[in-house]
Design brief:
The chain has two helices and five strands, in the order αβββαββ. Helices cover 21% and strands 22% of the residues. Bound molecules: adenosine monophosphate (AMP) and zinc ion. Adenosine monophosphate (AMP) binds at residues 5, 16, 28, 30-32, 40, 87, 93-96.
C-alpha cells in the first residue's frame, strides 16, 4: 500500500535496520526501542490490523511467531525471557496500520502492561 510506512520499508523506499528477511516476512529493529532488544516482525503482505486477517494468512502469521522465537534465541534472550505483542487498534496503542509482532527483551518486564 503506497502510503504505508512499513510497506515502504519492505520496498526499501525508506531504510530499515533489517535483521531477517524471507519471501513472506521482514524483521527490523524498532526505531524507538522500548527494551534493549526490540524487533518488529511484519508480513510483506499489507494487512492493516489483526481484525483483517484472512484464513489464508495463517501460515505467514505462524512464520512471524516462529521467527520471533528464532530471533530470541539468536539474541540470547530465549532462556531469560522475552515478550511478544500485537497491538490492535486505538485502545491497544496501534499506531502503524500494517500488522507487526513486537519482540521485546533484555530487561525485566512488568504485568499488567500499561
Ligand atoms: P504500534 O504502536 O504497535 O503500532 O507499533 C509501531 C512501532 O513502530 C513503534 O514501536 C514505533 O517505534 C515503530 N516505528 C515507527 N516508525 C518506524 C521506523 N521507521 N522504523 C522502525 N520502527 C518504526
Ligand atoms: Zn503496509
Amino acid at each position: 500500500m503506497s502510503d504505508c510506512l512499513f510497506c515502504k520499508i519492505i520496498d526499501k523506499e525508506i531504510p530499515g535496520d533489517i535483521v531477517f528477511e524471507s519471501d513472506d516476512i521482514l524483521a527490523f529493529n524498532d526505531i524507538t526501542p522500548q527494551a534493549p532488544h526490540h524487533v518488529l516482525i511484519i508480513p510483506k503482505k499489507h494487512i492493516a490490523t489483526l481484525n483483517d486477517l484472512k484464513n489464508e494468512d495463517r501460515l505467514v502469521v505462524g512464520e512471524m511467531v516462529k521467527t520471533a522465537s528464532t530471533l530470541a534465541a539468536e539474541l540470547g534472550i530465549a532462556e531469560t525471557g522475552y515478550r511478544t505483542v500485537f497491538n490492535c487498534n486505538a485502545e491497544a496503542g496501534q499506531t502503524v496500520f500494517h500488522i507487526h509482532l513486537h519482540l521485546l527483551g533484555g530487561r525485566q518486564m512488568s504485568w499488567p502492561p500499561g
